[in-house]
Specification:
The complex is a heterodimer of chains A (about 100) and B (about 650).
Chain A: H1 4-24, H2 28-53, H3 57-87
Chain B: H1 7-21, H2 28-54, E1 63-73, E2 76-84, H3 86-109, H4 116-135, H5 139-157, H6 164-195, H7 200-210, H8 216-232, H9 241-244, H10 250-259, H11 264-271, H12 273-277, H13 280-301, H14 307-327, H15 331-358, H16 376-390, H17 396-410, H18 416-441, H19 449-454, H20 460-475, H21 490-494, H22 500-510, H23 517-545, H24 548-556, H25 558-565, H26 570-616, H27 624-644
Antiparallel strand pairs in B: 1-2
Helix pairs in contact in B: 1-2, 1-4, 2-3, 2-4, 3-4, 3-10, 3-15, 3-20, 4-5, 5-6, 6-8, 8-11, 8-13, 10-15, 13-14, 13-18, 14-15, 14-17, 14-18, 15-16, 15-17, 15-20, 16-17, 16-18, 16-20, 17-18, 17-23, 18-23
Classes of the chains: A mainly alpha (about 100), B mainly alpha (about 650).
Chain lengths: ~100, ~650
Amino acid sequence: MISISSYIIVAAVLFGIGTLGVMISRNIIILFMSLELMLNAANLAIIAFSRELGVTDGHVFVFLVLTVAAAEAAVGLAMVITLFRNKETLNIDRFNLMKW
Amino acid sequence: MSEYLFLVPLFPFIGFLINGLLLGRLPRSIIAFIACASVGLSFILSLFLFFGLKAMPPDLRIVEQVLFNWIIAGSFHANIGFMLDPLSAVMIMVVSGVGFLIHIYSIGYMRGDTGYGRYFAYLNLFMFSMLTLVLADNFLFMFVGWEGVGLCSYLLIGFWFEKKSASDAGKKAFITNRIGDFGFLLGMFIIFWQVGSLNFTEVMASAPQVFISGGMLITVTCLLLFFGATGKSAQIPLYVWLPDAMEGPTPVSALIHAATMVTAGVYMIVRTNVLYMMAPDALMVVAIIGAVTAFYAATIGLAQNDIKRVLAYSTISQLGYMFLACGVAAFSAGIFHLMTHAFFKALLFMCAGSVIHAMSGQQDMRYMGGLKKYLPITFLSMLMATFAISGIPGFSGFFSKDEILWKSFSSPFGNSLLWAVGFITAGITAFYMFRLIYLTFYGKERMDEKTKAHIHESPKSMTVPLIILAILSVIGGWVGLPHLFGFTNNFEHWLEPVMKNANQMIAAHRVNEAVGETGMEWGLMIATVTLVLISIYFAYLIYNKRTELATSLRERFSSVHKLILNKYYIDEFYGAIVIRPLIYFSLFLWKVIDVAVIDGFINGMASSYDDMSGTLRTIQTGRVRTYATIFLSGVVILIAYMVFG
């Protein structure tokens, strides 16, 4: 069998890539995609541990997380559409009205 | 009898309330009636109290009334209380009697003035404060009256406040008084600190046990109290306000600066004579300052041209006599002179007011002359007063001044030098007073035609008080006829219970005195009278018979004349030594400490906060990525702490 550490390493790498994507990307859509990547990496980690321990609690939890992630993506993209309508750009650095 | 004591100051206070609160909008006759009636009632009451006191046996003549306990703070008690003893009985009669006559006089004098109601309100407030001062039974309540008369002096000197010189004079009077009051307060503090009470009877009873006789503490206390007296009673060094105070209406000068307020210092020293008898050094200081002031002020009065200024310096000089008397432990002589002085000095001021009134406001004697035939009543009254102040035998001033001169020579606390200064001053006094008479009433008429047309004798409301005071100036001394003439000195006997201590100490010293005193007393008296007559003759010579002598003497001694005409430049001296440094110090406190240091500190703190926040706010970049980065790095640190720490 594949040892659990492989799953964890994959999840960690995915999480890292997602974090970097959030920190670095200028485009809001890419930022959201990276955010989803982080969430899914966390899901992977939960499933791996759940399988390791032989319980199904993790699987149920992941279902919930996926649902919430989908809802959040929907709301977030709605907000992006509103922002785009106001500013005609997807460059997140342009939205800096809260600057001092 | 004790139930009525508080009414004596109360009547004028009610008069003040009515006239003051209604802002003088009542008709003039009612204002005048209320003011004069309140003082008149006080006078009648004080007469009753005097006779009531007289009916009591001499040792028991103290009547006290406590209205209520004013301050009770731990061990410190001070009451609103009144004490009537022979001394205060004399004072209230003099104060309310002379005050009443001056109120009547003011009706005529202030007739055309717009501030009529305000004037009488202030005058009543003054009477209230003065009567409180002399009737109080403890130092603190007396201080209330003390400050009250200072306040009223300020209000009344600056009565015509639109005139800058008048308001300046009022300020000067009040500030100089306050400097003296500082000394008075310090003296009171020491007394309370040592004795534990401020009540007169308690302090005088326990002082011999609490203080070391002749010691440092009691001497300092007495000197501090005397410093307060120099402010109120215009002695060196705090006399400078009195000549300027002539800016006020003449009845004010008569009442406050001749008869009553300026005598408060003398009263205070006599009241605390027990303390002074325990500090002979302080007594010597009092005597010396009194004598020097008497001489000094008399020399300044010689050259003044304003009729009121001459009288002002004369007041300072006569007050010096009173302090000289106190300083040689002849306290009853001092009070005797206080009483006769009240009569003749008030009369002198009122006559001067009558002259000024007749001369349509002219006060300079160089523009008067020959007024004898126009103002007969004024002339005669003023002549009586001048005889009294010069010490012509038989008149009131003769008896009191002569007693002071004799006591300053013969008392164990006096010496012949003090007598000599008083003796010479008596001569100078006679000279400048008769100079005043000759310049004003005799000789060529030096006024202009317009003024001359208006000259008129004053109305009855002004001349009747003059006549009454003139009679008192003549007979007022007969209550204190000296032993020398074979009479018993009734005045001295009346005041004996108050001066028990002083008389005992004098009697103790006196056992070593030689016999033959009587001859000396006659000799000194005759010498004084001779000097006075010579001075009057010189005044007659220079100012009446051969007036060109006046001009030639003035030219020959021009530098001396200039010195005394300018009051020895003391005002300028004080201005340079005291006032200018104070102003510079105030400017320093303002510009440097207040503006630069304190404001600078506060403003500097504010601007430093401003800079700090200017730096800190750059955290708000407004960029989401920066926020996300910080957020994530915070999480990392937290997890690292949880894993490793």
